């Protein structure tokens, strides 16, 4: 793929800055799909299969996708592979879905990835939770500000997994970077989420439940309007049915879906989400849609557990 796009040579002050971010806010209030990254037998990215899986999501009704998310094995991909995934996704999604690209690592790497996402044609970036062991709250603001300021044309969505982060820090960031428009909140505490969202501004940002379908009902009850999903790779209709119920305030209907997918999501969440990606890829493999291969530090499921995953998926409307 050609990574040297002509836009790379433009100066920042020549680029038009997107002033109306309301369409991007609307796009975030949805099922935010986190596509898997399929690997070929030789361990490389299977581009043809990746495109096929993306088309399956889009044909299934998905309207926003996050290449280079955790379900896409972001931290196991090389920089060049992450660029490839971004470009494949933008190419397939063009005119059909909004693209929210995952970026992270050190500040220069994250900025370069955000700039590449912009130049490739993506509309937003999601900033992965910093993995540095020493993260101050002021440093969290500095990290995200550096990325957001580099791409003022893009919507920016911090991925928050730190329960100690104060809502006021998000306000501080957005006051200096108005392109920070939403939050993927992934602290497993609905009460904490509700407080954080109100401290930062419930109506100021789009709040995305970052712990997928298992937490979506409780997070919607306290202010979320979208949720992320890895399960959507397998059964887009299941995830979209839950969203429709939550939008209508029909929690009884949403919980029927919750009950249907509960065991599957528990398998993903077990042992601190050790098999989060593995279970999704195993389900896709059981349907003949991609290989089950994952990269270290993930590992394929033992043979004895594969049947349970296949049985779970067999009961869904796919």
From TrEMBL:
Pfam families: DHDPS
Matches recorded under InterPro entries: Aldolase_TIM (IPR013785), DapA-like (IPR002220)
UniProt feature coiled coil, ranges: none
SMART domains the UniProt entry points to: DHDPS (SM01130)
Keyword annotations of the record: Lyase
Xref: SUPFAM superfamilies: Aldolase
CDD domains documented for this protein: DHDPS-like (cd00408)
Enzyme class per UniProt: lyase
EC number from the UniProt entry: 4.3.3.7
GO molecular-function term, one example from the UniProt record: 4-hydroxy-tetrahydrodipicolinate synthase activity
Keyword Lyase: yes
PANTHER family with a match to the protein in the record: 5-DEHYDRO-4-DEOXYGLUCARATE DEHYDRATASE 2-RELATED, DIHYDRODIPICOLINATE SYNTHASE
Similarity comment: Belongs to the DapA family.
This protein's name: 4-hydroxy-tetrahydrodipicolinate synthase
Organism classification: Bacteria, Bacillati, Actinomycetota, Actinomycetes, Kitasatosporales
